[in-house]
Amino acid sequence: MSGVDEPGLPTLYDWAGGLEPLRRMIDCVYDRVESDQPLASFVPGGASERHRGHVAVWWGEVLGPPTTHTERHGGYESMLLHYLDLDISPEQRHRFAATMSLAADDAGLPGDPEFRAAIIGYLEWGIRLAMENSRPRARVVEHASTPRWGWSVAPPYRG
Ligand code: HEM
């Protein structure tokens, strides 16, 4: 199946090596988060197997196909519900983003600049939306598709 890029290019999911390396990255990020004081309060008692698995297939769908999160776990709407009133601070946003970048190294994801620029671009975009949506009384977009990400730079958002 093709992704959002021009035909013939591998998807970011394929370039990563499929779901397993993405799951490894998610395990690495939550292993770090669990013992990182500014972030650990978001995962009281540790990040569950369910949480880790769902976040991994979310990433798989964004970078893929496959579209497993939408088909089995509720897609965008389900993800959004987890963020309401979480009140992520700018410092926590930055800390989590930096931790995820380290986790991509821990997990041995491809290190080429193009792949890393693409996934970190998505991370930066997604985590800023997560922070905005997490504010008390945030005005959220209630329904949307799960985002799709590719190799090229995203065009400007015009609403
Ligand atoms: C400071 C940053 C972040 C914090 C504090 C955070 C925290 C959380 C929490 C507390 C949950 C609910 C877990 C549960 O109910 O077991 C969650 C779910 C989720 N997070 Fe995050 N997260 C952050 C960043 C991100 C980013 C950057 C992404 C993706 C780009 C992401 C993707 C998801 C998804 C897909 C779920 C829902 C999984 C499901 O149940 O289907 N998160 N997050």
From TrEMBL:
InterPro entries: Globin-like_sf (IPR009050), Globin/Proto (IPR012292), Hemoglobin_trunc (IPR001486). Keywords: Heme, Iron, Metal-binding, Transport. It holds the Pfam family Bac_globin. Coiled coil: none annotated. The keyword Hydrolase does not apply. It comes from the Bacteria. This is Group II truncated hemoglobin. It comes from Nocardioides pini. The lineage of its organism: Bacteria, Bacillati, Actinomycetota, Actinomycetes, Propionibacteriales.
